[in-house]
Amino acid sequence: MDKKVIIDVGGKQFRTTFSCLQRLPSTKLAQISKERLRSPNCLKKSVSSGEILLKEETELNSISEQYETNKHTGTKSENEELFFNRNPLLFDSILDAYRRGTVHFPHDVCSSFVQEELEYWGIPETCLAPCCWHWYMCAELEKEKRKELEKVR
């Protein structure tokens, strides 16, 4: 059975499987999931601001038992959980990169924000869907033009 993982990004939870995260092997989530699958009983990992923080297993077990309890049934969840202290706005799109192999972003979001998220999660720009690539590159060209204009001032 494929091990499930809950990814908490800025308080919003997303669910997937470790095998899904392995589909883009050079990315941050693939590296974390690979490490987690390799040593599941050693130390659990809490991820915050891009750093992996290792805590003693006993401390994390008590935290995870409280956090992973299903309030409706009172049963302990078998899902692993990762926390990232980041804005969750674009994480649906990031997670879709693992599911589909391409990234689609809403065009009303700042391209700089999109670029920061791609860099943080380690998603290559080549994963951008063709419909989003044009928007992304046009926004990048506009940023470059603005920088040139600021130099002239």
**Percent of residues in helical segments?**
40-55%
Mean pLDDT value: 78
Number of helices: 6
Rg on CA atoms, Å: 18 Å
Count all strands and give the number.
5
Biggest sheet features: 3 strands, mixed
Oligomer: single chain
Major beta sheet, strand line-up: 2-1-5
Structural class: alpha+beta
- Show unreliable segments: 42-76
Classify the beta-strand content into a percent band. Answer: 15-25%
Shape: elongated
Element-level helix/strand string: EEHHEEHEHHH
Distance between the termini: 61 Å
Description:
The chain is of the alpha+beta class. The chain is built from six helices and five strands, in the order ββααββαβααα. It has helices at residues 18-21, 28-38, 57-67, 91-100, 111-121, 130-152, and strands spanning 4-9, 12-17, 45-48, 51-54, 80-84. Strands 2-1-5 form a three-stranded mixed sheet. A two-stranded antiparallel sheet has the order 3-4. The radius of gyration is 18 Å and the shape is elongated. The termini are far apart.
Give keywords.
153 residues; alpha+beta; three-stranded mixed beta sheet; 46% helix; 16% strand
Topology:
Layout: E1 4-9, E2 12-17, H1 18-21, H2 28-38, E3 45-48, E4 51-54, H3 57-67, E5 80-84, H4 91-100, H5 111-121, H6 130-152
Parallel strand pairs: 1-5
Antiparallel strand pairs: 1-2, 3-4
